[in-house]
Design goal:
Helix content: 25-40%
Mean pLDDT: 77
Strand content: 15-25%
Low-confidence stretches: 1-6, 25-33, 81-94, 344-386
Number of helices: 10
Shape: globular
Distance between the termini: 11 Å
Radius of gyration: 21 Å
């Protein structure tokens, strides 16, 4: 997984130039794939213009842009179950919930990317939102994924902006089918399993050790909860983060961007699965976004979960831990360095909370003594020049899946 990103500087620069050139040629529709292929990929993308109109209506209350050039993208995983083979994941009620939400921050210099997972069960203030039928839903304090179920992308963006005070520049919605197609287009993604998996609900039966997952297996793996680890959403989000890192490493390590034969099916899968804001709903828009990432290595693709702990009113729900969450949002808002580590920070001992059914065990990184009645501890902001940047539990795309 490290070969390309960690190779000699000259080789890495040559790989980056060739990758950027390959994307540019494809994006302009002049590659060997031809104009028809370009039009096919371009037409795959779906623009959510209703969401854009709703966000424009509330422009005055949205956070300002503090660092020109930095980009904050909300990636929403829809749990809509329509599509071939998706019935196994439950009955399609005719709507969709945000099963996964990731706040992706791209630094202004495009040398780092930070992906922050937002738990679906996080208790938040959801603002007044427009429903699909045009009616309005009043503001309420509820689970985070209720925002997407109520008002789609616009409601989710406004909820995240209210929660974080971070301006969301773009949004993307990916569904079950698109996720599976993407993994299959990459010819599978490697993961490392500490123990064998036999989960009938997820349709998974896998041996321990290094395993390459196809699309169907990958979807079951990132969605499974009760049969893996301690059955918590904490561990599920950690698996999702590790999987995304492995996916990024696979795309770079296999030279997908250099080979049109490999690249086209990946782009076809990606574009056909995306619903985005209008600015990104075309290949030119996507290319403008990714072309600045030529200096981004897997070592600087970081994944973490927002600091949170069980909600006092219901241990099956989450709440933010402050000031740690606020400190993280401040770093992202001002485009300052975020450092992740696979080990827990010294001031963040692991705490386990178990319900009577044993299915919601949580290993929390940011309890910080709250259960003992002590105030939470978090790095102070802003960091002094002589002090290291704050460290959060997480991983990078460069870490070996079996490391």
């Amino acid at each position: 997984m490290h070969g390309t990103a960690g190779g000699p500087p000259r080789r890495r620069r040559r790989w980056v130039r060739r990758s950027a050139l390959g994307l540019a040629v494809l994006a302009l529709g002049t590659s060997g794939l031809g104009w028809a292929a370009y039009e096919k990929l371009n037409s795959n993308l779906t623009a959510d213009r209703d969401a854009a109109s709703e966000l424009a209506r509330y422009e005055r209350e949205r956070p300002p842009v503090l660092v020109p050039g930095a980009q904050n993208i909300l990636v929403i995983g829809s749990d809509r179950r329509s599509g071939t083979g998706n019935g196994r994941y439950g009955r399609d009620p005719g709507g969709a919930r945000s099963d996964t939400a990731i706040l992706l921050h791209l630094a202004a210099d495009r040398r780092t990317a930070v992906s922050v997972s937002l738990p679906r069960d996080l208790m938040v203030d959801v603002p007044d939102c427009r429903r699909p039928d045009g009616s309005r839903a009043g503001a309420e304090f509820t689970m985070f994924n209720h925002a997407f179920a109520t008002g789609g992308s616009a409601c989710t963006v406004r909820t995240v902006e209210k929660l974080t005070d971070i301006r969301i520049d773009h949004f993307m919605v990916v569904d079950f089918n698109g996720f599976k197609k993407m993994v299959d287009a990459l010819q599978g993604v490697p993961v490392c399993l500490k123990e064998p998996i036999d989960d009938r609900a997820a349709g998974l039966k896998l041996p321990a050790g290094r395993v390459t997952l196809d699309g169907e297996q990958a979807l079951g793996y990132v969605r499974a909860r009760k049969s893996l680890g301690n059955g918590s959403d904490t561990e599920r989000m950690q698996r999702q983060q590790l999987f995304l890192g492995a996916l990024a490493g696979k795309a770079r390590g296999d030279d997908v961007l250099l080979n049109p034969v490999k690249l086209y099916p990946v782009l076809d899968a990606a574009t056909s699965s995306l619903t985005t804001d209008p600015a990104l709903a075309n290949l030119r828009g996507l290319y403008q976004l990714v072309r600045g990432l030529r200096n981004l290595t897997t070592e600087h693709m970081q994944f973490l979960t927002v600091p949170r702990t069980p909600y006092p009113g219901d241990v099956n729900r989450d709440q933010l831990v402050q000031p740690a969450a606020g400190d993280l949002f401040e770093l992202l808002r001002r485009d300052r360095p975020v450092v992740v580590s696979r080990g827990l920070p010294a001031d963040s001992p692991a705490k386990t909370n178990t319900t009577s059914d044993g299915l919601r065990d949580r290993t929390e990184s940011y309890d910080n003594g709250m259960s003992a009645g002590k105030p939470p501890v978090a790095p102070a902001l802003p960091p002094r020049a002589s002090e290291p940047a704050p460290t959060f539990p997480g991983n990078t795309a460069a870490q070996d899946v079996c490391g």
